[in-house]
Amino acid sequence: MSLVAWPVFIIFSFLGFLAFSRISSHFQENCGGEISANFNAQLVLWSLPFYAGAATLFLGGIIDHKTAIISALGIISLGVIGFCKRKFSHQSDPDFWSATLLVALLISLIPIELSVLLSRAPMGLIGDIKVKSFVATSNVFIVLGFVFAILALTRLKKCIAQHLSRFILAAQISFPLFFLTLYPSRILQPSGELVQYETTIY
Q1: Alpha-carbon distance 171 to 168, whole Å?
Q2: What pTM does this model have?
Q3: What's the rounded Cα separation, in Å, for the pair 31 and 86?
Q4: C-alpha span between 12 and 110 (Å, rounded)
Q5: What is the distance in angstroms between the CA of the first residue and the CA of the last residue of the chain?
Q6: CA distance 50 to 53
Q7: Mean pLDDT throughout 79-94?
């Protein structure tokens, strides 16, 4: 499978480069150099998660598929939006498109943040927590969120612009729950005993 994956990746990367170059050229002709440069810059930013995951190869690890998928979703979404908006100079704002996609990504993390909260709560109150179900829900949310963002940006940009601040608030409101990762979680030993680890040397 790995022998096939890299050639396929190289081919799709080359085809993607040609497609995005064409879209960027349309922006250059119809919207000016600034819009084209912003579009290219956002493509580079959305590729960073992939390169961060690929950096583990230098440490003897493997590429993190999650970061690669995030980069792929962001880049493809920008490409679809850019293709739909390539001839509308007054509606082309790659920075706004990217911000909307980022908000969709952050909102999709809410189920994972809730799982962190529930995993630190007393088992007597909430019982057994199936973290995988929260992760699966988050994966569904990210795909639906990007699809919704594409449809909204290509059809309802004014509506998104009016309510983007509320979406940003919704995306950030549960971020403090990630601080609970510093709280010791319960570890189930092979003997069936639940233990906790210390988070401080004192």
Answers
A1: 5
A2: 0.76
A3: 8
A4: 32
A5: 49
A6: 5
A7: 76
> From CA 98, how far away is CA 45, in angstroms rounded?
9
Reading the block at residue 93, the tokens are 């704002």
Q: What gap in Å lies between CA 101 and CA 94, rounded to an integer?
A: 11
Beta pairing partners, 189: none
Q: Render the chain in DSSP notation, one character per residue.
A: -HHHHHHHHHHHHHHHHHHHHHHHHHHHHHT-HHHHHHHHHHHHHHHHHHHHHHGGGGGT----HHHHHHHHHHHHHHHHHHHHHTT-GGG--HHHHHHHHHHHHHHHTHHHHHHHHHHTS-HHHH----HHHHHHHHHHHHHHHHHHHHHHHHH-HHHHHHHHHHHHHHHHTTGGGGGGGGSPPEEE-TTS-EEE--S---
CB 188 within 8 A of CB 194: yes
Q: What is the pLDDT of residue 2?
A: 58
Structure tokens at 109: 């993390």
- What confidence tier does 3 reach under pLDDT thresholds 50, 70, 90? low
Band (172; pLDDT cuts 50, 70, 90): confident
